[in-house]
Design a protein that fits this description.
This protein is mainly alpha-helical. The chain has one domain. Helix 1 packs antiparallel against helix 2, helix 1 crosses helix 3 and helix 3 packs antiparallel against helix 4.
């Protein structure tokens, strides 16, 4: 169950990061509210996952899911650049996540 909590915590991290971008510096009400709710949910699920997962593993996977997911959302939906260096960076993040999980 901890892995499921961690997966959903990471997905909610993507939601709050995108909502933060859409909030325009917390000047837009709905994106700011979505961001706050997703943050609470993400942190809560991360805390539940950490009951049985090692801190390093849980935190690396949570931030990795959020970072790579936010990168993909930015490229696919927000018109952000997809450059070779950014792809290499995202690949390195995923590689680190896999290595941490295997360790």
């Amino acid at each position: 169950m901890s892995w499921i909590f961690l997966l959903f915590a990471g997905l909610l991290e993507i939601v709050w990061a995108v909502a933060m971008k859409q909030s325009a510096g917390f000047t837009r009400l709905w994106p700011t509210g979505v961001m706050g709710g997703a943050m609470l949910g993400s942190f809560g699920l991360l805390a539940l996952a950490m009951r049985s997962l090692p801190l390093g593993t849980a935190y690396v996977l949570w931030t990795g899911i959020g970072a790579v997911g936010a990168f993909l959302v930015g490229v696919m939906f927000l018109g952000e650049a997809l450059t070779p260096l950014r792809v290499i960076a995202a690949t390195l993040i995923v590689s680190g996540m896999v290595a941490m999980k295997l360790a």
